[in-house]
Isocaprenoyl-CoA:2-hydroxyisocaproate CoA-transferase (Fusobacterium animalis D11), 402 residues
Amino acid sequence: MNKGQNMLEGLRVIEFANFVAGPCCGRLLADWGAEVIKIEPSFGDTMRIVGVQWNSPITEEENPLFENENAGKKGIIVDANTEEGKKIIYDLVKNADVFLTNTRQKALVKSKLDYSTLKEINPKIIYGHLLGYGEKGPAKDTPAFDYTAYFARGGIALGLMEKGTSPCNTAAAMGDHYAGMSLAAGILAALHRREKLGIGEKVSVALFHTAVFGMGLPVVSAQYGYSMPITRRMPPNPINTTFKTQDEQWIQIAFFQYEKWFPNFCNIVIERPDLIDGPYSTLKGGIKGINEFVPMLEEIFIQKPAKEWIKRLSEAGIPFEKLQTPGEILEDEQCWANDYLFKHTYENGHEGILYNTPVLFEEYGIKEFVRAPKLGEHTEETLKEIGYSDEQIKELKDKKII
């Protein structure tokens, strides 16, 4: 529970974004105490309806995937394709600190919601732009999702696949969340700079760049001959891979101090003390003999259930984890002990599980959860705050601008 004043108290963010990457940045800022005003068209953010693809309810009373990205915000409806709608956005920007969007640059220029236009209205605005491929180059106007810009072009999908098989069906929104987190960090850096110098800034983060940064180790290593995808049977070293257990589970071992950990691995884990001074006892020897040693270890690990290997690896002090499904994470006691997950009761009475954003503060605590806005829920309230009269609001409604 939040223990005091919000960390970003008084910060006003105007969010003109949909789906995941842009809105999750807004969610982070809202969690940290900013007032985030989300602008939607009359049909709403597409994230309100896509949850059905992942078996999620999409009703007004219960829409967890929309909640994940939009909790704690205010929501207004504005038709940004009209002059009256643009004026509303400009009026909001005049008194805002941050404008956040993941609309393509070409469309922003056409709608006159680009940085050059908005900084004329508010020179101190921090303009956060979540892009697919970046502002320059041949792909700058290409439609992008994390499936394409992050997983496919960014090397993630082939980097994760088992060599010789087909690419994995990717985990939706993973890249979006990393990019959104990066943009939130950049916005805060720009706000700090504005505090010192009194000037605005444009902050850009691209899904493609986020993937290149995340894949930095294999990308840089590629120039020296390291090639991906790889097979789990040809890992960087023969113990630094996954092993299947008797009960159809998988164990991932992170064996990065090879010579130091090898004796305990042989004595305690696989009960093969005869290997301690053998050809696989050094990192160089293990790599040289990888074609023989990995199959040997596979034959050993398949003989016992995961529970037994967990016990032995723990006793040996070797870093490892059993591979978990997303469903198992819902029951992981480590998540609940650290408030990574929490229970939320929806208006229809159903209790579901949602997640907290992944930055925790000792003194600030966790801000109390506020549900995502219903479509257009705060339109009138927000317009009145910036000086619109009841008559003006009625006229905008009649014209379907709001």
Observations:
- The mean pLDDT is 96.
- The first helix runs from residue 21 to 31.
- The CA atoms of residues 259 and 282 lie 6 Å apart.
- The chain has two domains: 10-214+358-397, 249-321.
